[in-house]
Amino acid sequence: MLVVQKYGGSSVANPERIKRVAARIVETKLQGHNVVVVVSAMGDTTDDLIDLMKQIAENPSEREMDMLLSTGEQISVALLAMAIESLGEKAVSLTGAQVGVVTDNVHTKAKIIDVHTERMKAELKTGNIVVVAGFQGISMDNDITTLGRGGSDTSAVALAAVLRAGLCEIFTDVDGVYTADPRIVPEARKLDIISFDEMLELSHLGAGVLHPRSVELAKKYKVPLHVRSSFNNHQGTVLKEVEEMEGINVVTGVAHDYNVAIVGIFDVPDEPGIAMKIFNALSDANINVDVIVQSAMRNNINDIAFTVTKDELMKTLQVVKDSQEKVGYKEYSCDDKVAKVSIVGAGMASYYGVAARMFEALAEENINIEMITTSDIKVSCIISSDDTEKAVRALHRKFELGAV
Amino acid sequence: MLVVQKYGGSSVANPERIKRVAARIVETKLQGHNVVVVVSAMGDTTDDLIDLMKQIAENPSEREMDMLLSTGEQISVALLAMAIESLGEKAVSLTGAQVGVVTDNVHTKAKIIDVHTERMKAELKTGNIVVVAGFQGISMDNDITTLGRGGSDTSAVALAAVLRAGLCEIFTDVDGVYTADPRIVPEARKLDIISFDEMLELSHLGAGVLHPRSVELAKKYKVPLHVRSSFNNHQGTVLKEVEEMEGINVVTGVAHDYNVAIVGIFDVPDEPGIAMKIFNALSDANINVDVIVQSAMRNNINDIAFTVTKDELMKTLQVVKDSQEKVGYKEYSCDDKVAKVSIVGAGMASYYGVAARMFEALAEENINIEMITTSDIKVSCIISSDDTEKAVRALHRKFELGAV
């Protein structure tokens, strides 16, 4: 069988851990499998590079940031290949460019367009364990790109998809996917199984175990995904299609995300299409808007509020300022002392009153809801960030997620 | 005019220095020139990476070493491009692979086969300052290679050659080429001009300012080369063909090199061709042998001694051991407590007695000569490394190099 394994930054944070990961990879190989490994940058490398960068330029171009940050994974793949070789197995490290992970040219959050398989297949054929730099690709213009947050997960799933791997194991520093963050909710339970859709919502909503793009890809290409710990041999969480699952949960888990900021623009003329101009401008700047609330306060005048990630707040405010004339709003504001709490469950659509029970749980704790957004399988509320832990615990209790 | 500038590791050792180098580059650009910059890895980066590597593998494969070490230059080009951009000029960084510096596949000391110019020319045409990672290339198999010691000099000269640059400036931490190492000989004089051939010998003999391969390339493609300090604006040393020079020195400079080790093999059967077997084996292992001395001590039995660089002593001894049966020698020995001192001068060939004066100078200081090798424009002696400084000073005095 062909197994794709992905190891995150904390799993390869130092030489000792790299050697331990190498041993685990060799073990898999000796079980008779072909192994392709995707690796992130070592623990602090990226932060160190960003520190250096900040001493040189306040607002460096994203192309050069990718050039800089992609070295992190190149270092870890080379070291991991050396560690594997010194255990007596053959290994070869490859950059995103060498594999042929072709992306668009949206630097710092490029999307994968195509993944070539020739080089990987040739290396596997000669008996090599193939160690691929995650998080990175190469654009059509031959420029180095990075895939943004959680990019290595996406790399791993994309490789598993094109290589038709029998298994894609995502090794991380927790035992799997939990009903809530165990650091906040001690009685949180590890899920043995979760649907792609639920995982997708959870990861969108801030559960950091897997990046949403990787889950999307896995769902689309039916990649058998197993999220597990790199520090032990416990069974982790297996991702499945809902129809393959025995029972469906009304609520599977509670997620929270501190990486949220609200931007408000006030006194926007209520003409058709004018509100869209701000979102077009944000989209042109590659900024993702999450929740949007529009309220007609007075005649012909709107207030609009929306959320973006905290990381992109500065960039967002710049775009908002630059489009004042075009959009014709009077004032803007922002608030980054907020968070998002969400409940997720594939069975939610068939039950009434799930959202109501959520609002009740928050009300019982005197937590104010600033914005609400829902989908078939999730309800999210924007609340004050100070209330986050209290909210997560209350929701976990309300939906009895701790019970086995 | 198109100017190629090369900055070594000490010139970009920290953010402050990178900014200073950026300012210098922008100055050149604002004088109306097109600028291509070649950069080495920041000061200690390479050492840090080697430290990491040693914690992981004792004897890592050279392919993976190249993969690892090439990240050093990628970091410095990205940072330098950012620094240039923040001064308001357009810049783009390129790896060896992106430029298309095509090399053979002899990892850790690859030779350049071809350099593509399309990408660099396209970037120059859009007004970009092009910042190229020195020291690295890409093999026909799409593997990352490094050019070995002094590789960034070679990169710079190769780029200047293919781009037909009007000037190639090698910026370093000294003011130019000196008659001897000023740290050893305080009265050493900076040379305003030196012939390619003299520079070639000097660099082969351990004067660290320029790597011999870069000088060879510059001579072959008539690249106008200027070696100068990155810390001031002084005129440095210009390299010329001998016929373009006004006067020719009998002795131009004194060089010394601690990176030398002697290997001896004893009791080699004196059959035709048998001695060559050891050198063929060393050549197959890509080890450069410098001085060779063969002495017929007794009937049909030879002793052979030769020198290699200290770096390659371990590898050399392995080859020597492995070929004992084939070569049929009885014993071997090695000595790394030696150094090479040399005198170089383009006019040497037309004068008698230059070598004799060198031996006299060493004899006056009671310095024992272990091996001698000569060429048209140099005489080198292998001596005890403890005597090196004394020897260099004596030779500098003997040939009156301090006088203006």
UniProtKB/TrEMBL annotation, chains A, B:
List residues binding ATP: K6, Y7, G8, G9, T172, D173, Y178, R183
InterPro entries in the record: AceGlu_kinase-like_sf, ACT-like_dom_sf, ACT_Aspartokinase, ACT_dom, AKii-LysC-BS, Asp/Glu/Uridylate_kinase, Asp_kin_monofn, Asp_kinase
Q: Cite the EC number.
A: 2.7.2.4
Please give the superkingdom of this protein's source: Bacteria
Keyword terms of this UniProt record: Amino-acid biosynthesis, ATP-binding, Diaminopimelate biosynthesis, Kinase, Lysine biosynthesis, Nucleotide-binding, Transferase
Ranges of residues in domain ACT: 263-346
Which Gene3D superfamilies does the protein's record reference? Acetylglutamate kinase-like, VC0802-like
GO biological process terms, semicolon-separated: diaminopimelate biosynthetic process; homoserine biosynthetic process; lysine biosynthetic process via diaminopimelate; threonine biosynthetic process
Q: What job does the chain carry out?
A: Catalyzes the phosphorylation of the beta-carboxyl group of aspartic acid with ATP to yield 4-phospho-L-aspartate, which is involved in the branched biosynthetic pathway leading to the biosynthesis of amino acids threonine, isoleucine and methionine.
Name this polypeptide is given: Aspartokinase
Species annotation = Desulfofarcimen acetoxidans (strain ATCC 49208 / DSM 771 / KCTC 5769 / VKM B-1644 / 5575)
